[in-house]
Amino acid sequence: MSEEALSAKDSLKDLLFGSVSALYTLTHPHTLMFPRCVGKTIEYPFDTIKVRLQSQPHGQPLIYNSTWDCIRKTVRSEGLTGFYRGVSSPIVGAAAENATLFFSYGIAQDVIKKYVVQTKGDLPLPYLVLCGGISGVVASYVLTPIELIKCKMQVEQVYSGQGKPNTVLGHIKHVWKMGGLKGFWFGQTGTLLREAGGSASWFGVYELVSKTLKEWRLGRRANSDDTNTIGELLFSGASAGIAYNLSLFPADTVKSTMQTGSIVNPEQKPMTFQEAARTIYKHGGVKSFYRGLGITLARAIPSNAAIFFTYEGLKNHFK
């Protein structure tokens, strides 16, 4: 088989394994030695809390003073179902995001190996970080429409009264009516910044930590296995999740503010990325860009550990 054919085959594997790792992590957390609560039933409520904290109206008293305040008020007014508004979107989004990320990450590496450094071995860390950033840029165009609908559904019950919430299809029709096809990419700048910087950190930290842990172990036990252990993979994935969310969380806050603006304040005209950022800073300072960070990190640690563990497991199994 030619080198080009092998490269294409590996890319297709990245696409498939990236999709499976996201869906498998969401639906089978118990098989990854995590408590069942680290699956979909806990993952999505964390995101709902984050988006609600990020999307509060500016220049008015806060609806939620803290993460726990948001949890209490959501349970009191909507019950547990309030945490699952729009849950179908992230199921699709998780598969689409991971498939796109791992696929484009592999393609970027192949291109750099062939045309930049002319090597068949592993790329140096700076190039891996670059490949991660490239994969994030590609993934952002897949994610923005999915997150637009998700964010609207997560906050609509808070600001639109207690009537029957709109459906996914209803929101899609409304976005099409108001902005046509390009309306689905409203907030793209925020998604692009978050994914480019976040994915560079995500892949870069994962590669660095997994390599460092393996080398440290081999230095102590030279005869041990040359592949990462389960513990090393889980720790590396968790570290990557923390790095991803810490890197450009403010961009995600601006994006959420933009995408939920039509529901939070229907009379306000849509804001650009710069306008939303200035508004957030004016009414809350730097700290307002980090609302929901704590709950996001709590979610990111187990989920990203599981994603990388599953992805590497699939790769090793189907070598």
TrEMBL record:
<feature type="repeat" description="Solcar">
    <location>
        <begin position="231"/>
        <end position="317"/>
    </location>
</feature>
<feature type="repeat" description="Solcar">
    <location>
        <begin position="23"/>
        <end position="111"/>
    </location>
</feature>
<keyword id="KW-0496">Mitochondrion</keyword>
<keyword id="KW-1133">Transmembrane helix</keyword>
<keyword id="KW-0812">Transmembrane</keyword>
<keyword id="KW-0472">Membrane</keyword>
<dbReference type="InterPro" id="IPR018108">
    <property type="entry name" value="MCP_transmembrane"/>
</dbReference>
<dbReference type="GO" id="GO:0031966">
    <property type="term" value="C:mitochondrial membrane"/>
</dbReference>
<feature type="repeat" description="Solcar">
    <location>
        <begin position="127"/>
        <end position="212"/>
    </location>
</feature>
<dbReference type="InterPro" id="IPR050567">
    <property type="entry name" value="Mitochondrial_Carrier"/>
</dbReference>
<dbReference type="Pfam" id="PF00153">
    <property type="entry name" value="Mito_carr"/>
</dbReference>
<dbReference type="GO" id="GO:0000064">
    <property type="term" value="F:L-ornithine transmembrane transporter activity"/>
</dbReference>
<keyword id="KW-0813">Transport</keyword>
<protein>
    <submittedName>
        <fullName>Amino-acid transporter arg-13</fullName>
    </submittedName>
</protein>
<dbReference type="InterPro" id="IPR023395">
    <property type="entry name" value="MCP_dom_sf"/>
</dbReference>
<dbReference type="GO" id="GO:1990575">
    <property type="term" value="P:mitochondrial L-ornithine transmembrane transport"/>
</dbReference>
<comment type="similarity">
    <text>Belongs to the mitochondrial carrier (TC 2.A.29) family.</text>
</comment>
<keyword id="KW-0677">Repeat</keyword>
